[in-house]
Design a protein that fits this description.
Length: 110
């Protein structure tokens, strides 16, 4: 049973050309910094990392609202301890789908 945690490199300074390229590729403003996917389905955990005084931008609030409305979990973590507690709790929760005995691709390879 393995969870998948990955970072979304949305932040940082970009040139106008790079910003236009990323937008054309489908980069979504406000996406959380980290995404944790449960191995057996169920809600995904979206994690936004902020400093103790950091505030969500409007695009981040909109993304948070959309993910919660879709049945996913969203959290803002302001320090390492709260991040560890959050992820530990999420990983202990059973998913709704039992592990598959064989894997069938949903889409054929490109």
């Amino acid at each position: 049973r393995r969870h998948t945690l990955f970072a979304v490199p949305n932040g940082g300074w970009r040139t106008l050309a790079t910003g236009a390229y990323l937008k054309a590729e489908g980069t979504l403003p406000g996406v959380s910094d980290l995404i944790l996917v449960h191995p057996h389905g169920g809600p995904t955990l979206f994690i936004e990392m902020k400093t103790p005084r950091g505030r969500l931008q409007k695009s981040q609030e909109d993304f948070q609202t959309a993910m919660i409305a879709s049945g996913h979990r969203y959290a803002v973590c302001r320090d390492l301890d709260s991040f560890i507690d959050l992820v530990t709790d999420f990983m202990r929760q059973p998913g709704p789908n039992p592990p598959a005995t064989t894997l069938t691709p949903l889409n054929p390879p490109c």
